[in-house]
Write a structure and sequence with these properties.
The structure is a homodimer. Chain A is an alpha+beta fold and about 290 residues long. The first copy, chain A, folds into two domains: about 90 residues, no CATH class; about 160 residues, Cyclophilin. Chain A has four helices and 17 strands. In chain A, strands 14-4-5-12-11-13-3-2-15 form a nine-stranded antiparallel sheet. In chain A, strand 8 and strand 9 form a beta hairpin. The N and C termini of chain A lie far apart (about 40 Å). The interface between A and B is large, with 78 and 78 residues.
Chain lengths: ~290, ~290
């Protein structure tokens, strides 16, 4: 068979015995290369087809994260719907009928689109980026930084979750959320609040039927996907939680992973790229290992 | 409602009266800004949910295109299946059971991964690219170029179609094809033959259920999507053809479209990106206008 691109299968190990592929690096990693999800900053969105797990990014959007958790804890999203699926762009969910009260949540939030670069860790990627002076990783999220103005921000890679807003930059409040399902729409960076990323169940969003209305909104109510519930993981009994851990992005292991993405070592590849886009370095997630 | 990112809706027109958004530019374009699909280099893949239209790129992969057309004209793909859907990567189709004869088609083809830069048109994009010395557009396809060695190649943007191969670079023959459904896997550039791109029906591929086997292959036969037929458009009666035209990429109009993607003019955007990735500038396709 003409197979295609064994992205995650080990092929020939180079003579140096150093981990070669992403799979090798993950296999050789130590427990300290991983961090468990923080239940207080993890959301579960239950769809009919399964659970979507979202890791929140409070360091980048603290007020948004707090407001979203307020909404979730009020049951705001329960019974609402995925209302928009625009191919090569975003899946969006919220209240398509504009009926539900925000309850105790704020109606308006500050524009948490960038933060002070001093306030967040940053592991730079050495490769040039089309959009930002510098890109890299911050606390397990893809990020960018502008040293000239001392600002950092999360970037719109596949699977990143943001909060919709109207034209007013303070009009967002987290009651309409979206996830990126296509080529990174980096033009959104610094224009809207990114609040986290999908770490499990992305395929439940990306495979939804595309909407045929303007901007990919569904035109019929029955096309929508119902959100059975959204929960903060901390509010779910421990035994029902998704026990996941995310690879740390500030380690030597992650640096090796970046290098494995920049120059693939699989036998299939003949011309190593020599570079990698920040959005072409997915941050590994795996079931959390049991304590020994 | 908290709408999100009116990507293709016109908002505020700048004072200069110059087309501002992609929608404005398309609306103001002239017939000469478009080229109809060449029926001899267009494929229709009929799935149960509808027709996928693929524009072939014979200037970049002439032997692959010829071999694929031979396979299609022999009915090679009819009744075969989409066998692999790997999230954020590719959809792949071909003969999962390895039973079908290639007939008159060649078993092996030269590695048509790059061409001489002199042999193809090229409209450069001024923005820096992570992977290539220069990126831009060639005959309606996203492309890259290395002036130092005089080579050009198509790049793996969303919707691009390529031909799988085994480890041997001449092992491909077009009987296994794939389309990109996620972040541009640019590491594949120059490693495999890109043969065209999906110009209609991409959502029929991108929304397929993801495979749960290694590399996203389906584990059960019934998960596959059947290919009812593949046809060269020229072999289909004229009245049954998809009458589409693609925006030319070597025009002043397309240069305006690039600028509209680099710096969005919608009222929603507060910080223009100032740049655009070659894979974030989709080339417009529309129903062909009737002759007057």
């Amino acid at each position: 068979m003409l197979s295609l691109v064994p992205l995650l299968t080990a092929a020939e190990l180079p003579a140096a015995h150093k981990p070669a592929t992403v799979a090798d690096i993950v296999a050789a990693s130590r427990p300290s290369d991983w961090k468990p999800l923080d239940p207080e900053n993890t959301l579960y969105m239950q769809l009919p087809a399964g659970r979507v797990v979202i890791e929140l990014a409070p360091k980048f959007a603290p007020e948004y994260v707090a407001n979203i958790k307020t909404l979730v804890r009020e049951g705001y999203f329960d019974g609402l719907a995925i209302e928009r699926v625009q191919d090569d762009f975003v899946v969006q969910w919220g209240d398509p009928d504009h009926r539900r009260s925000l309850g105790a949540a704020k109606r308006s939030l500050p524009a948490e689109f960038v933060v002070s670069a001093r306030d967040v860790p940053f592991t730079p990627l050495e490769d040039p980026d089309t959009y930002a002076p510098e890109v890299g990783f911050s606390g397990g999220f893809p990020a960018a930084r502008d040293p000239a103005v001392g600002r950092a921000w999360l970037v719109h890679c596949y699977g990143m979750v943001g909060a919709g807003r109207n034209d007013d930059v303070e009009s967002g409040n987290g009651s309409e959320l979206y996830a990126v399902i296509g080529q990174a729409p980096r033009q959104l960076d610094r224009n809207v609040a990114l609040v986290g990323r999908v770490v499990r169940g992305m395929e439940l969003l990306s495979s939804l039927p595309r909407g045929t209305g303007p901007l990919g909104f569904y035109t019929k109510r029955e096309q929508r996907t119902r959100i059975e519930s959204m929960r903060v993981a901390a509010d779910v009994p421990a035994r029902e939680r998704s026990r996941l851990e995310v690879m740390r992005t500030d380690t030597r292991t992650f640096a090796e992973l970046i290098e494995a993405r920049r120059n693939r070592r699989d036998a299939w590849y003949k011309v190593p790229a020599g570079h990698a886009d920040v959005c072409n370095i997915p941050i590994p997630v795996r079931p959390r290992l049991r304590q020994r």
